[in-house]
Specification:
- The chain has 274 residues and is an alpha/beta fold.
- The protein has a single domain, classed as Divalent-metal-dependent TIM barrel enzymes (TIM Barrel, Alpha-Beta Barrel).
- The protein has ten helices and nine strands.
- The protein has an eight-stranded parallel β-barrel with strand order 1-3-4-5-6-7-8-9, surrounded by six helices.
- The structure holds manganese (II) ion.
Amino acid sequence: MIRSAVTISLVNEARGGPFVYWDDFAGSCRKAAALGYHAVEIFAPSADALPMAMLQPIFFENELEVAAVGTGAGWVKHRLSLTSADESVRRGAIEFIQGMIDFGGRCQAPAIIGSMQGRHGEGVTPQQARDWLRAALDVLGEHARRHNVPLIYEPLNRYETNLVNTMAAGVELLQSLQTDNVRLLADLFHMNIEETDIAAGILAGGRFIGHVHFVDSNRRPVGNGHMQYGSIVSALHDIGYDGFVSAEAFPWPNSDAAAAQTMRAYQYWFGAEG
Ligand SMILES: [Mn+2]
C-alpha cells in the first residue's frame, strides 16, 4: 500500500523552503494525525537536536510512523558536501549523514541525501565528484544497513546539482555502486523540470525507487499546479511501489491548508487502496 506522509522542518536556515509544517513538532504531529497522515518526514538541524527518546512518545500517541529524515541541514547550516574539494568538508559531510542515519534508524526511517551531494566545478572535475559521491554512498548505504533501512538518494534538478538529474541517471549511479542498499527518491518537482515524461521517468527508476516527494509542478501542494497525475500514479502502481508519497511542498497558502490539500489529493489518487 502506498502511504501518506507530510514534512516538518525544524531548520531555521531553511525558512522559505518546501516544507509543509514548521517549528512546533508535537503540534504538527497532532495536526498530521488528525488529517489522517500515516507518517511524518523530519527535516532536523542535527542528529542530536531532537532526542528520539523524546519524539517516540509523540509518534506513539498519534499513531504516526517516520517516513524519512532529511540531511540537508548539513548543507544549509554547515556548508558540508560529499563532493567538496576540501577533504575535511567531505569527511564532515559523511559524519553528519551517519549521525542522521542513526537518528532515523531508531524509528526505522531512512535518511535522504539531496543537497548534501553537492556538485562538480570550482576545481572538482565531473569524474572526481562522481567518484567521491560513489565512495560516500557505498559507506553510507552500508551504514544504513545496520538499522535495516535503505539509504535514499535524490536526483535534483539542474539548478541544484550537476551530478544526477534524472531517474535513469540515478539508476546508472546506483548500479555502479558496491552496495545494493541505496534507493532513489522520485521528487515530482525535480522530475517535472528534468524528465522528458514523468511517468516514463518513474518506470525508468523502477524497483530502485524507494521514496516519493508528492508535490505539484510549482512546488505547491498537489492540485495547485499543472502536473498531470493520472499517468504518474499508474506508473507508481506499474513498478509495484509501496513506500510513502510525502508532501515536500511549500506551505502554500499556509501550513494547515497545504497539509489538508495534500491529504485530499492523496485520498483522491490513492485512497481507494484503503
Ligand atoms: Mn525532494
